[in-house]
């Protein structure tokens, strides 16, 4: 079956710095894929390349079989790629519901009834009771939920989540994981960059590890996490420490 997303030999250089180094992988439709790696490894840059915020220096990005490498983020969003950002920037003076309506009218959702669709999304993400509050009055968890809701309002087939669990308490993180599990169960494909590994492992079926812009490990999440090489680069646990 044709993959939903394919990256083929994707490179990105900022001057002399190579931030994405020959990144190649396919995402089958319906899969939840996790991406981990040390700070500065090139994870958010990879999202910029998939979402269209940045063009690659070379290589191709295909979505639903079409080459989207030269398409801007707005076109990719309408095609079905939505992204939540590490630091949410909602329209703070607008209500939560209005924020979703903007996203819904911008994206390619084709919701027959956008107002009802936005109401349903807020119900799914646990924000319905805040629908008429200004976005600027929300707590951190609620802002994260709004970020997720705005991405969903565009009607994505592929949802890119950039460190959405960062800064939350353990209980808040658990609640958010349940919401993301529900979104995945509804058929939305997900790529999730996250440092909170236990949250990630509760959702994803496959894990990719990036270091210095390269894919250095890939596969079933628990097998990848127990690889001594991954433990060394990601958690600083050396094979010698384990033997001691
Ligand atoms: N627009 C840019 N111009 C120059 N350098 C950049 C640019 N964007 C990112 N970088 C550099 O590319 C490298 C990778 O950054 P990136 O944000 O992709 O890493 P990351 O893995 O997401 O890190 P973190 O886990 O801290 O969010 C860093 O060294 C960063 O400083």
Automatic annotation (TrEMBL):
<dbReference type="InterPro" id="IPR003439">
    <property type="entry name" value="ABC_transporter-like_ATP-bd"/>
</dbReference>
<dbReference type="GO" id="GO:0005524">
    <property type="term" value="F:ATP binding"/>
</dbReference>
<feature type="domain" description="ABC transporter">
    <location>
        <begin position="5"/>
        <end position="237"/>
    </location>
</feature>
<protein>
    <submittedName>
        <fullName>ABC transporter ATP-binding protein</fullName>
    </submittedName>
</protein>
<keyword id="KW-0547">Nucleotide-binding</keyword>
<keyword id="KW-0813">Transport</keyword>
<dbReference type="InterPro" id="IPR003593">
    <property type="entry name" value="AAA+_ATPase"/>
</dbReference>
<dbReference type="InterPro" id="IPR027417">
    <property type="entry name" value="P-loop_NTPase"/>
</dbReference>
<dbReference type="Pfam" id="PF00005">
    <property type="entry name" value="ABC_tran"/>
</dbReference>
<keyword id="KW-0067">ATP-binding</keyword>
<dbReference type="InterPro" id="IPR051120">
    <property type="entry name" value="ABC_AA/LPS_Transport"/>
</dbReference>
